[in-house]
User: Which sequence fits this backbone?
């Protein structure tokens, strides 16, 4: 890596970007120091000895496997209070009337959940009970009941996922799902179909020195800040960076990496080429790029002929799609499509990176397939500096599905079929259901209809992460039993129910005896040891909660589902998921194994039945906008998942109520910054304030989860069942 200064990449000649709008990373350090007052020693040990529970880049301590430098991002700093805060006062929950309506951030600040708590129907609040009574009540409510289980991804390690899904299946259902359902499930579906593996095909080291990196509907500056250091070094190595998005994200335009002297002083120009597309217009744009690649003979014919199938059918389909159709859908010109096609065609290597802007659509699977088509057409898979990367925003997402905590998949990502169910029936010694269960969104639908009796929710907050919070609230209220497992309070716990509501206190990953593992975006399984420090009340590890709950519900199978500790769970994971070979040997800080090696398919064969990558015929969706209507997308600000850390986004100055609108549209409608407006989608409304932004005309962005009130809970993708986090709206000044 070059250590020479390179002014060509500088974002500004102003030292530290003084006077420019950008986050103050050094202030974040000070805030983190203040937030862990009284537990700073413990916080320091977590930072130095633990594997990061933030995004899925997977730093161990403050180091990683991409470069020998210190890594410390704002997301991880903001998570420190959750891992070090003291217990809340249980008497605060005796009458929750004063807590209802508080923001989630206010509820979290009350402290950690220390004891099992119970609220009976009609009671004003919760009372403390013993673990024995809590497990008995939960078991009585689950026995012979129609139930589902959901696990969030924040900080949840592989061991918890594996034990939880096994326990749920031991009780006779595949209705166990996790947060991957509402972020990258379309990637899982499309990648399994096209290349046979639902994971990134490369490593982060492939970014540095690649000819080209293309970010499509992805914003690492907000969601994976450590990655910006990789991009700084990539730019130093001559890598060009392109961005395909409806909004020219300020943090992806210019970024100040605080731990690199050159970037901290003068910032770094990140994006070299920006391609603006409409919300929902990605397929139109990417098909247009592919059309140019084919017409200009920029396809890697040898790779296509020897390692893929289905190209001719796709070529005929794309040839029949008119430029006018593709331009109208994408909002981009034919020349813009040619510009990216030429970048790809001239590049010897490239990495294609995408995230929620691609997946959270009713046609998210086709969005991903269109990206895979580009990579296969240019042979950008299975070799150095190349790859397909569905970048993960949470440390538990990749492992969650691979451990089988998925309503549509068993451990190892195997589809739920009679043959695969029989395999695990033999391995585990109890009958495993042979049909898929309810996904997270299906569970809420079933509860709303009265077709679900009980829900076990480990972390998460359906009121914040799913469309139409009122619909979710009503669904939760109709359940006869809700079991909420978490480290802190959330608003969904306070929803009154027709039956019992149990709160069960969980441990963080740093508190678990025997240590745990996570799987990073680059398929690296990383050990995180127990960290010495204070412990909260009677909190249990989630793997123990789920297995003990199943054992109480059905004592006959207790010996087949209980574990002595996390080392025993890892040993079983290695037997159940062959490509996780080596996980059983991870015992100390820094231990890791990257399944599949640096590159998947380096041997020339894909993990499909015939070893060939599959092109997909992708037809543009029929999106029609009435005159005067806008497409609105939900975006992240200063937050981690639905956990909002600040009301103002340091990159663009947007407050949480901001409605981002292009200058063209704002001028046309006579709306200055700060103008109050109402967005309406059918009967759904949202009130916010205009903020002019470099956004494609005809498109808007509002913050998630606040904007979920506009979303139609019935709009989901056909295969992955991911909600559509976008809406067609009209704008009315207030």
Assistant:
């Amino acid at each position: 890596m070059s250590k020479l200064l390179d002014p060509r990449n500088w974002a500004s000649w102003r030292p530290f970007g003084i006077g420019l709008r950008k986050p103050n990373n050094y202030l974040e350090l000070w805030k983190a120091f203040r937030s862990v007052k009284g537990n700073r020693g413990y916080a320091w040990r977590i930072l130095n000895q633990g594997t990061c529970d933030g995004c899925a880049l997977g730093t161990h301590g403050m180091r990683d496997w991409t470069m020998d430098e210190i890594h410390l991002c704002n997301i991880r700093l903001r998570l420190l209070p959750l891992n070090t805060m003291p217990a809340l006062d249980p008497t605060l929950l005796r009458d929750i009337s004063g807590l209802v309506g508080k923001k989630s951030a206010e509820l979290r600040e009350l402290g950690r959940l220390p004891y099992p708590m119970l609220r009976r129907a009609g009671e004003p609040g919760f009372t403390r009970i013993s673990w024995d009574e809590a497990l008995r009540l939960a078991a009585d409510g689950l026995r012979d009941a129609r139930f589902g289980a959901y696990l969030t991804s924040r900080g949840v390690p592989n061991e918890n996922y594996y034990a939880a899904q096994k326990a749920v299946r031991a009780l006779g259902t595949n209705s166990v799902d996790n947060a991957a359902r509402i972020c990258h499930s379309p990637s899982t579906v499309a990648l399994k179909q096209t290349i046979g593996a639902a994971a990134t095909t490369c490593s982060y080291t492939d970014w540095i020195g690649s000819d080209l990196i293309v970010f499509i509907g992805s914003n690492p500056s907000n969601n994976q800040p450590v990655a910006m250091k990789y991009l700084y070094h990539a730019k130093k190595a001559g890598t060009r960076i392109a961005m395909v998005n409806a909004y020219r994200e300020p943090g992806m335009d210019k970024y100040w990496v605080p731990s690199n002297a050159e970037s901290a002083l003068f910032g770094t120009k990140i994006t070299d080429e920006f391609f603006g597309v409409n919300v929902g217009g990605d397929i139109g744009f990417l098909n247009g790029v592919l059309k140019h690649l084919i017409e200009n003979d920029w396809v890697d014919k040898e790779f296509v002929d020897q390692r893929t199938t289905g190209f001719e059918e796709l070529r005929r389909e794309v040839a029949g799609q008119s430029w006018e159709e593709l331009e109208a859908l994408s909002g981009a010109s034919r020349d813009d499509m040619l510009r990216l096609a030429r970048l790809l065609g001239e590049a010897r290597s490239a990495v294609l990176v995408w995230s929620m802007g691609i997946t959270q659509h009713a046609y998210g699977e086709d969005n991903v397939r269109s990206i895979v088509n580009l990579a296969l057409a240019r042979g950008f898979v299975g070799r150095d500096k190349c790859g397909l990367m569905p970048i993960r925003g949470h440390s538990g997402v990749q492992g969650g599905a691979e451990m089988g905590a998925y309503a549509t998949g068993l451990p190892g990502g195997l589809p739920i079929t009679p043959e695969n169910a029989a395999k695990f029936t033999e391995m585990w010694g109890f009958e495993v259901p042979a049909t898929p269960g309810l996904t997270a969104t299906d569970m809420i639908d079933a509860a709303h209809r009265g077709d679900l009796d009980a829900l076990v929710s480990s972390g998460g907050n359906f009121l914040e992460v799913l469309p139409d919070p009122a619909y979710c609230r009503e669904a939760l209220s109709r359940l006869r039993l809700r079991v909420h497992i978490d480290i802190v309070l959330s608003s969904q716990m306070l929803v009154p129910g027709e039956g019992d509501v149990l709160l069960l206190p969980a441990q963080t990953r740093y508190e678990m005896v025997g240590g745990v593992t996570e799987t990073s975006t680059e398929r690296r399984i990383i050990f995180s040891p127990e960290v010495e420090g204070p412990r909260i009340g009677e909190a249990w590890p989630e793997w123990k909660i789920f297995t003990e709950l199943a054992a109480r519900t059905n004592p006959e199978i207790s010996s087949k589902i209980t574990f002595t500790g996390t080392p025993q769970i890892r040993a079983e994971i290695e037997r159940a998921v062959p490509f996780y070979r080596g996980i059983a040997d991870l015992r100390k800080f820094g231990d890791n194994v990257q399944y599949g090696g640096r590159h998947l398919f380096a041997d020339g064969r894909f993990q499909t039945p015939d070893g060939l990558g599959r092109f997909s015929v992708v037809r543009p969706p029929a999106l029609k906008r009435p005159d005067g209507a806008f497409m609105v997308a939900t975006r992240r600000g200063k937050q981690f998942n639905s956990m909002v850390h600040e009301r103002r986004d340091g990159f663009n100055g947007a407050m949480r109520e901001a409605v981002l609108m292009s200058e063209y549209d704002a001028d046309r409608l006579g709306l200055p910054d700060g103008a109050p407006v109402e967005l309406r989608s059918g009967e759904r409304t949202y009130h916010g304030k205009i903020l002019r932004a470099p956004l494609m005309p005809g498109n808007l962005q509002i913050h998630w989860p606040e904007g979920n009130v506009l979303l139609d809970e019935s709009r989901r993708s056909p295969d992955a069942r991911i909600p559509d986090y976008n809406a067609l709206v009209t704008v009315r000044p207030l």
Remarks:
- The chain has three domains: 93-179+396-594, 184-393, 629-733.
